[in-house]
Specification:
By secondary structure, the protein is α/β, with parallel strands linked by helices. The protein has two domains: about 280 residues, 3-Layer(aba) Sandwich (Aldehyde Dehydrogenase, Chain A, domain 1), CATH 3.40.605; about 190 residues, 3-Layer(aba) Sandwich (Aldehyde Dehydrogenase, Chain A, domain 2), CATH 3.40.309.10. It contains 16 helices and 21 strands. Strands 15-16-17-14-13-18-19 form a seven-stranded mixed beta sheet, with helices on both faces. The longest helix has 25 residues. The structure holds nicotinamide-adenine-dinucleotide (NAD) and (2E,4E)-2-amino-6-oxohexa-2,4-dienoic acid. The site of nicotinamide-adenine-dinucleotide (NAD) has 32 residues, from helix 8 and helix 9.
């Protein structure tokens, strides 16, 4: 049986307690995970603090960037190992981990290694009313020790999306990956060593949230900032824990994202795009569309087409090339998603397709598969239209005017992403600018440029990640004013 240990100050260390790492494809135990107690989290934070004052703290930007490129090389060298580990932890298809999760991990480090070398700051020539002249400029310094807490849906992608800009900015990190997906964060430690990242710069503590490593980290007085991706209610708990020490927080939280499909769209593109937007990664992407609004003229046609896509999805073993729908992450999460499938019917939904659990007649029946599901007929106030489900499911509702579509899309406490499907470019711009979200796609979905701001409004988060926005969060700016 594999063992995933904590990684503190450049050493793999066991925990006093442990927990099982489960393969969602068949429910089997694939590894034992060492849980860090409060003393070990403290050791990790101490190691990270010490490392700030060691070799890492003395490296110039160019050398730091070079080591991050070496780290990307080390990830690419272990490509198959990362893919295998990510697939075993999440049950996602091998092709998805190979095309999305693992390549992005390496790219995350390359992008921020390059960006930190050119990220400039403005300077100002100042003249006061009484004629005194001054030059103002700001210098960028690391924030210090960053606590990184990540979810299970895109484990390596989202962890490196935070660790890369944190390290590029000269910080050190203590990461707490999701208890559901401990593997790739642990393997990343080996790549760090190979890339010459000094000990103490990257530390991993395994465990849960409340009363465990997550909470120990967020409460720790010597952690300078918390960057977190996960559920909105977890974000609220972290904010509370971080409040006494006034830590800055960067939050990427939940969503209940809308898609607006206009009658003038290219229907094939919209159906294909929304099939991804609803079902990719078994609907476990924060950007997934769980509310689809379709102009009445094409409502029935669209439903039939998306139903066809849903029914052609192939749930199966991750390493089967024909598989394009993996399991949900855990038994517990499937119970949650199925409770929404039941609730939808109680709230008066019409089931277009799905609503249950597929049967395979083999070990996959011990895994956590679920049918892709489409509903219609719910009131806009229904809980299934308001609450994030985080599964392969959407509700489709008709609209008659642009104003009505915008109003329904914005009637949510979340505000992460939206997609608009239209061939009318003016409408695309007009509607996009009215969306109360952080990210709007027109005629596409999850098309990423890593320099762009990424994040949400309302319950969907605080702050923006990506490009200079990440570097600004992970830096402390010191403005220097020189009288001339
Ligand atoms: P989660 O909030 O349950 O857990 C995320 C992480 O937080 C885990 O590592 C967990 O152990 C830790 N945690 C839980 N309680 C904690 C506490 N009190 N203190 C400190 N740490 C704690 O989320 P999840 O179920 O792993 O992920 C799914 C959620 O993440 C969905 O809501 C999804 O929308 C959201 N998400 C958002 C984005 C985004 O970019 N906005 C990206 C991915 C996932
Ligand atoms: O692509 C990204 O950078 C990103 N943060 C994606 C988040 C997906 C949420 O599940």
């Amino acid at each position: 049986m594999k063992l995933f240990q904590n990684y503190i100050d450049g050493r793999f260390v066991p925990g006093k307690r442990g927990f099982a790492d489960i393969n969602p494809a068949d429910g089997s135990t694939i590894a034992h995970v060492a849980e860090a107690d409060a003393a070990q989290v403290d050791e990790a934070v101490h190691a990270a603090r010490q490392a700030l004052h060691g070799e890492w703290g003395r490296l110039g930007i160019r050398e730091r960037a070079a080591r991050l490129h070496s780290l990307a090389d080390a990830i690419e060298k272990r490509f198959d190992c990362f893919v295998h580990a990510e697939v075993a932890d999440t049950g996602k298809p091998v092709w998805l981990a190979s095309r999305l999760d693992v390549p992005r991990a390496a790219v995350n480090f390359r992008v921020f290694a390059d960006l930190i070398k050119i990220a400039g700051l403005e300077s100002f020539q100042t003249e006061t009313p009484d004629g005194v002249q001054a030059l103002n400029y700001a210098v960028r310094k690391p924030l210090g020790v960053i606590g990184v807490i990540t979810p299970w849906n895109l484990p390596l992608l989202l962890l490196t999306w935070k660790v890369a800009p944190a390290l590029a900015s000269g910080n050190t990190v203590v990461v707490k990956p999701s208890e559901e997906t401990p593997a790739t964060a642990t393997i990343l430690a080996e790549a760090m060593e190979e890339a010459g990242i000094p000990r103490g710069v990257y530390n991993v503590v395994h465990g849960f949230g409340p009363g465990s490593a997550g909470e120990f980290l967020t409460q720790h007085p010597d952690v300078n900032a918390i960057t977190f991706t996960g559920e909105s209610k977890t974000g609220a708990a972290i904010m509370k824990a971080a409040a006494p020490t006034v830590k800055p927080v960067s939050f990427e939280l939940g969503g209940k994202n809308a898609a607006l499909v206009f009658a003038d769209c290219n229907l094939d593109d919209a159906v294909k795009g929304l099939s991804d937007a609803v079902f990719l990664n078994t609907g476990q992407v924060c950007l997934c569309a769980e509310r689809v609004y379709v102009e009445r003229k094409i409502f029935s046609q669209f439903i039939e087409a998306l139903k066809g896509r849903a029914e052609s999805l192939n749930p199966g073993w991750p390493n089967d090339e024909k598989t394009n729908l993996g399991p949900l992450i855990s038994a517990q999460h499937r119970v949650k998603v199925l409770s929404y499938y039941k609730l939808a019917k109680e709230e008066g939904a019409t089931v277009v397709t799905g609503g249950g659990v597929p049967q395979f007649g083999d070990k996959r029946d011990h895994g956590f598969y679920i049918q892709p599901t489409i509903y219609t007929g719910l009131r806009e106030s229904a809980r299934c239209v308001k609450e994030e489900i985080f599964g392969p499911v959407c509700h489709i509702a008709p609209f008659d005017s642009e104003e009505e579509a915008v109003a329904m899309a914005n009637d949510t406490n979340y505000g992460l992403a939206a997609s608009i499907w239209t061939t009318d470019l003016k409408r695309g711009h007009r509607v996009a600018q009215q969306m109360t979200v952080g990210i709007t796609w027109v005629n596409c979905w999850f098309l990423r440029d890593l320099r762009t701001p990424f994040g949400g409004v309302g319950l969907s988060g605080i702050g923006r990640e990506g490009g200079i926005h990440s570097l600004n969060f992970y830096s402390e700016l010191n403005n220097i004013c020189i009288r001339l």
